[in-house]
Design goal:
- By secondary structure, the chain is mostly beta strands.
- The protein folds into two domains: about 100 residues, no CATH class; about 150 residues, Barwin-like endoglucanases (Beta Barrel).
- The chain has three helices and eleven strands; from the N terminus they run E-E-E-E-H-H-E-H-E-E-E-E-E-E.
- The strands form three sheets. A six-stranded mixed beta barrel has the order 4-9-5-7-6-11.
- Strand 6 and strand 7 form a beta hairpin.
- The two termini are about 45 Å apart.
Length: about 290
């Protein structure tokens, strides 16, 4: 759909880009902002008959630039059936269909280890102190495995040896996990080598040119990768400090058609308190020309 993607990628399960996108419209189904409208209620849309019963469906449908995360023909005026099943209890203004009552929650009385209110903590490794909660740097209930062991050494806050924030990500050209991408010649040809993406400011500061090899170091280990110098990834001013940000993709390893160092060697054994997903999106590193 225009505005959502370029018609070559698929978002599981319904090609929907934003969940709860009915909330992008007001109670009457009109966009909160014409400039940013995403999905909205079109009262004049002519619906075909019900394919199962053949009965006519009244005019009106949720339309827009995304697959509506809502019953397509449920008008904003729909009151809902408290004794109904599945979506029937929800009204036409209840956007949060994964909740039985259809409401968005700020206060979460159960189900979260780190509830009941959402808040900001810094990652376990961070170049700055927590500006929002100076007395609580990181989550008090996140999981740290093998703390103090050689394979899980952790940087102190603001450690000058590891001044940069690093994040990890997947590549469109890989799409699946490394077990597939490393053994498929087409994907290996599209992404033949591990790289690190860094901004022009950091590259100039370090004397790194595009396609140079660099060494990326964290308290756990170090890896070697080729530099991709771009304008896409940048620099921030946080707490009076200049913080450079770098990024590295997954998928390489010691076997396959395209081999290379393993980015997982850099990450910390630190996990989300609820589902134990490791903190691979925000940790610290150093980058030097090889």
């Amino acid at each position: 759909m225009p505005g959502a993607h370029l018609k070559w990628g698929w978002a599981w399960p319904a090609n929907r880009r934003n969940i709860y996108n009915r909330a992008s419209a007001d109670l009457n189904g009109n966009p909160w902002s014409e400039r940013k409208r995403w999905v909205w209620w079109d009262p004049h849309f002519v619906n075909p008959p019900d394919p199962k019963t053949g009965k006519p469906i009244p005019p009106g449908k949720w339309v827009g630039y995304d697959v509506p995360d809502f019953t397509l023909t449920m008008p904003p005026s729909h009151k809902g059936k408290p004794d109904g099943i599945i979506m029937e209890p929800l009204s036409g203004t209840d956007a949060y269909i994964m909740r039985p009552e259809g409401k968005g929650w700020i206060y979460v009385p159960a189900g979260l280890v780190d509830g009941p209110f959402p808040t900001h903590y810094e990652p376990h490794e961070s170049p700055v102190q927590n500006l929002l909660y100076p007395k609580q740097q990181s989550s008090p209930v996140h999981k740290v495995w093998s703390q103090g062991k050689p394979w899980n050494q952790l940087a102190a806050v603001g450690d000058p040896k590891f001044p940069y924030v690093i994040t990890t990500y997947r590549l469109t050209e890989h799409y699946l996990a490394g077990a597939m991408s490393r053994w498929l010649p087409w994907l290996s040809e599209l992404q033949p080598e591990l790289f690190i993406e860094l901004g022009k400011g950091l590259a100039k500061e370090k004397g790194i040119n595009n396609l140079d090899y660099v060494i990326i170091t964290t308290p756990r280990s170090h890896v070697r990768a080729k530099a991709l110098v771009t304008d896409r990834i940048g620099v921030l001013k946080v707490a009076g400090k200049t913080i450079h940000h770098v990024g590295m993709p997954w998928h390489w390893g010691w076997m396959g058609l395209s081999t290379g160092d393993v980015v997982n060697d850099l990450t910390a054994w630190v996990g989300d308190p609820n589902v134990s997903i490791h903190e691979g999106k925000a940790f610290v590193c150093n980058v030097e020309k090889a």
